[in-house]
Task: inverse folding
């Protein structure tokens, strides 16, 4: 066996490969356990009655009597359904608004020339680096002055504000990959710009705006900070804010808390399962908050 | 892309074109003005007043001076730095390790990749539920194991002990954000040419040498971006800390975002709160300048 360039005694490559392989598998298993254990605990607690789950003073990790009792208690004793309705309203309107702004801005920024475009690019990236709380305080004082606190509209605006920088950036990059020749050939055949937009550009840009919509959706669905700042009326709380107060109540235990967690996780779960490739496209463009 | 305006049909319908330009940019500018520019300018303006919402009194930079001269501000700043650095570096290491593993053709790599998406997509609230349960003093699974195997005598109240609160918050953050580093690094790894490794192997390079001389240089910019961007996001992170510890115990996990929230909603000191938001804004802008000059991300689009 050759010695390494530095003259050290080399470990044979076969052994190196084996050691690397062991290291790789150990890493994979450790991270997999680290990631899955909390999720498993959530599921096992959500589907067990508290009496079974904590029988004998320790957590029962393998459910013997699966039940939907926790979900029933949740809907009977708390305003969970109201919170979910609020979340759905705000999330749907944020997704629509954010995607619409992103598509029109992305199209405009790639198809029209104007001076100062590089400033536009920097402004978008700068606002993308913002964290919700840094914008939340200014928005709070303005919404306070305008009377927009405690309204779906106010929260939608706030969530659209923190999701659009990235959705615009994504659409800007995406429209660059849509050749303008497609549009030109439609114009040559006499189609108007608007018609071309509807019939040619939007269908081609579909993967782009699906990614943008997924991103806007998850920002709105996951948001806690903006809702906590803007909504103080309990009837308007989205599920994240509503559920965050559950553990303070005597009637709600870990079983019900994990049950509501399972419900909140369903949309992200479906996205991860069925729309993975759109999501990963977002990472290729430069990451997501 | 060199689609100059010149290549467009000369009579592309001037009216239609103007309308389209307006339709693209007017909503954008109105929206940005309403939710970004106006609030930030308004908040900065408020930061120069005492009681800006009631009996406003112009005090110049007093709010800033008051903040910067209290030792608490510097303590909270330090806590923010500890949290940001700790959580960012650890998520990077977890993400890097797993990305290197998944990039090898190991069994179950697609499953691992799908699995890594979950923590990232789970709402922060759920992440905190899971970790407060896992680390709970009475019912927590971790304490059960630690006591059973004699590692500790007494269960530890992780989130409410001075010593353990910050590490616990960091672990929960790493759990959620490790996948951010993972996906960015994995994408970069898959872009490295396999021939490079093949040639190095023929030359007799060790695994470590290949990692140091091929893998790391290719990952350099990805790693720096993760450190910088994730770092500033963690520095300004509010929800994870608020939901897990409310900044306690005794301010052990109070970072600047928690402090600004307290000033706004507990102390109702809008003047100082907006001044603190102004300081955080300045820190963010400074980071952005570094980001723009070092990485030139705006080159990713044609301007």
Result:
């Amino acid at each position: 066996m050759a010695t390494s360039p530095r003259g050290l005694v080399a470990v044979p490559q076969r052994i190196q490969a084996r050691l690397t392989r062991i290291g790789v598998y150990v890493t994979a298993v450790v991270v997999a356990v680290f990631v899955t254990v909390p999720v498993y605990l959530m599921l096992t607690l959500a589907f067990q009655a508290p009496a079974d789950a904590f029988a004998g003073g320790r957590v029962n990790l393998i459910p013997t009597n699966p039940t939907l009792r926790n979900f029933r208690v949740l809907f009977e004793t708390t305003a969970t359904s109201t919170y979910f309705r609020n979340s759905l309203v705000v999330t749907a309107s944020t997704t629509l608004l954010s995607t619409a702004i992103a598509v029109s801005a992305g199209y405009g920024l790639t198809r029209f020339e104007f001076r100062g475009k590089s400033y536009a690019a920097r402004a978008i990236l700068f606002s993308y680096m913002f964290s919700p709380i840094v914008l939340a305080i200014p928005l709070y004082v303005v919404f306070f002055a305008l009377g927009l606190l405690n309204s779906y509209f106010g929260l939608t605006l706030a969530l659209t504000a923190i999701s659009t920088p990235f959705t615009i950036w994504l659409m800007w990059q995406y429209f660059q990959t849509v050749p303008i020749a497609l549009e030109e050939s439609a114009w040559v055949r006499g189609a108007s710009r608007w018609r071309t937009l509807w019939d040619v550009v939007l269908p081609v840009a579909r993967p782009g705006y699906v990614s943008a919509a997924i991103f806007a959706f998850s920002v709105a669905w996951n948001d806690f900070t903006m809702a906590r700042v803007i909504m103080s009326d309990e009837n308007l709380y989205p599920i994240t804010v509503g559920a965050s107060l559950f553990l303070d109540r005597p009637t709600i235990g870990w079983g019900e808390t994990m049950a509501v967690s399972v419900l909140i996780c369903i949309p992200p779960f479906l996205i991860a399962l069925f729309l993975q490739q759109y999501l990963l496209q977002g990472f290729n463009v430069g990451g997501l908050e | 892309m060199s689609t100059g305006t010149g290549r467009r049909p000369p009579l592309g319908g001037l009216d239609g074109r103007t309308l389209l330009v307006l339709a693209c940019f007017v909503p954008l500018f109105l929206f940005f003005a309403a939710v970004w520019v106006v609030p930030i300018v308004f908040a900065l303006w408020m930061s120069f007043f005492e009681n800006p919402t009631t009996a406003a009194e112009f005090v110049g930079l007093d709010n800033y001076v008051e903040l910067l001269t209290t030792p608490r501000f510097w303590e909270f700043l330090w806590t923010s730095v500890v949290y940001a650095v700790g959580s960012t570096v650890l998520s990077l290491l977890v993400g890097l390790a797993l990305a290197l593993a998944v990039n090898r053709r190991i069994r179950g790599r697609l499953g691992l990749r799908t699995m890594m998406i979950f923590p990232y997509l789970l709402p922060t609230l759920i992440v905190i539920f899971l970790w407060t349960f896992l680390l709970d003093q009475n019912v927590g699974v971790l304490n059960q194991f630690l006591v059973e195997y004699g590692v500790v005598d007494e269960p530890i109240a992780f989130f409410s002990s001075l010593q353990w609160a910050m590490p616990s918050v960091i672990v929960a953050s790493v759990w959620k954000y490790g996948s951010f580093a993972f996906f960015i690094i994995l994408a970069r790894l898959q872009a490295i040419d396999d021939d490079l490794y093949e040639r190095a192997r023929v030359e007799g390079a060790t695994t470590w040498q290949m990692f140091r001389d091929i893998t790391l240089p290719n990952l350099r910019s990805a790693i720096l971006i993760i450190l910088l961007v994730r770092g500033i996001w963690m520095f300004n992170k509010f929800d994870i800390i608020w939901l897990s510890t409310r900044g306690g115990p005794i301010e052990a996990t109070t970072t600047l975002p928690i402090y600004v929230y307290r000033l706004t909603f507990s102390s109702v000191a809008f003047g100082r709160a907006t001044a603190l938001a102004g300081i955080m804004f300045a820190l963010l802008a400074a980071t952005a300048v570094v980001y723009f000059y070092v990485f030139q991300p705006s080159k990713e689009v044609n301007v």
About this structure: Residues 12-46 of chain B form one domain. Chain B is about 70% helix and 0% strand.
